[in-house]
């Protein structure tokens, strides 16, 4: 009887995921959810912050005028071109990442068919919404198969025998989606080399600031940083005036604090967010190797786990606006 129990234990462990596979896949799952949630929250917050910054700018800048819309009306450019439709597309992509993280975690760790089925449905819905709202994402047969594999897994009573096969399928789908969406997020979170959110350019270029760098189109965070710089410059001009009324000076100081805090936050968000997104892309490649081998150990995935902790800690440093 003792030998029968041992034999069954060996057979069952051989049919499921190894401890190493579970560990690495769980790290990727957690990081993917963090990146998705982080991107969704920050992109929404950045647009709201831009509107607050623009409103403050028009309050203290007496020469600021409304802009002709070309439709017979004049309006204040509160969002500076960061439209709700653009943000909705980005958020849909970010939510798809979060759903991948949840699905991957459920695949590896869930002991209930309800948990697996819920994760599978959420992943299918999120991918569909992201592909509909963003032209940068197109779904493939691998994506459909990955969702189907999760649904199939949820209906099995011998779940362990199917986890490894399902992990291989979701790893292929995950890598394909990551390669499509991370460049879009990197565009938003990477800032230009002369961005006023960089410490060496916050108040104009310091003496040893770079004089050249790699150019890139402005992303969402670049627009936010530029708006903050323009508000700070306008506020500083008023603060330096010797014959300014008290109420106007108070407003100028408040505007200066709002702008400076935005620059500090922009630098933290860009540094940590961009690094984590790039690391996630590399880990997507590694996840496929993990799925194919029970003994493969990935240094990139271990680093990804550390980066997630660093990001979580850094977000506590974000300064609240005035």
Topology:
Layout: H1 2-15, H2 19-60, E1 67-68, E2 74-75, H3 84-109, H4 113-133, H5 141-154, H6 160-189, H7 220-239, H8 246-292, H9 299-315
Antiparallel strand pairs: 1-2
Description:
There is one protein chain. The protein has 322 residues and is mainly alpha-helical. It has helices spanning 2-15, 19-60, 84-109, 113-133, 141-154, 160-189, 220-239, 246-292, 299-315, and strands at residues 67-68, 74-75. Strands 1-2 form a two-stranded antiparallel sheet. Helix 2 (19-60) packs antiparallel against helix 8 and helix 4 runs antiparallel to helix 5 (141-154). The N and C termini lie far apart (71 Å).
Order of helices and strands: HHEEHHHHHHH
What's the total count of β strands? 2
Unreliable spans: 1-14
Shape: elongated
Quick rundown:
With 322 residues, the chain is mainly α.
Features:
mainly alpha, two-stranded antiparallel sheet, 2 strands
């Amino acid at each position: 009887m003792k030998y029968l129990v041992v034999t069954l234990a060996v057979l069952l462990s051989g049919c499921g995921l190894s401890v190493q596979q579970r560990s690495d896949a769980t790290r990727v799952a957690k990081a993917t959810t963090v990146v998705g949630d982080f991107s969704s929250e920050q992109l929404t917050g950045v647009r709201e912050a831009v509107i607050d910054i623009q409103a403050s700018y028009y309050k203290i800048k007496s020469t600021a005028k409304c802009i002709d819309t070309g439709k017979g009306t004049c309006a204040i450019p509160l969002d500076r071109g960061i439209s709700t439709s653009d943000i909705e597309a980005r958020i849909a992509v970010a939510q798809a990442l979060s759903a991948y993280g949840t699905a991957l975690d459920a695949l590896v760790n869930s002991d209930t068919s309800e948990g697996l089925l819920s994760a599978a449905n959420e992943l299918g819905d999120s991918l569909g919404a992201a592909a509909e709202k963003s032209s940068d994402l197109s779904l493939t047969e691998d994506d459909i198969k990955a969702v189907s594999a999760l649904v199939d897994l949820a209906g099995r009573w011998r779940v362990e025998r199917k986890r490894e096969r399902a992990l291989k399928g979701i790893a292929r789908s995950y890598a394909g989606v990551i390669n499509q969406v991370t460049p879009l997020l990197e565009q938003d979170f990477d800032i230009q080399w002369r961005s006023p959110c960089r410490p060496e350019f916050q108040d104009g270029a310091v003496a040893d600031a770079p004089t050249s760098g790699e150019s890139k189109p402005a992303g969402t965070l670049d627009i936010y940083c530029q708006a903050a710089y323009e508000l700070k410059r306008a506020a500083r001009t008023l603060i330096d005036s010797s014959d300014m009324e008290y109420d106007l000076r108070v407003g100028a100081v408040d505007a200066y604090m709002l702008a400076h805090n935005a620059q500090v936050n922009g630098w933290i968000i860009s540094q940590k967010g961009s690094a984590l997104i790039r690391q996630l892309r590399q880990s997507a490649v590694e996840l496929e190797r993990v799925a194919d081998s029970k003994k493969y150990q990935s240094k990139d995935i271990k680093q990804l786990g550390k980066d997630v902790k660093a990001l979580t800690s850094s977000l506590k440093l974000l300064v609240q606006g005035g």
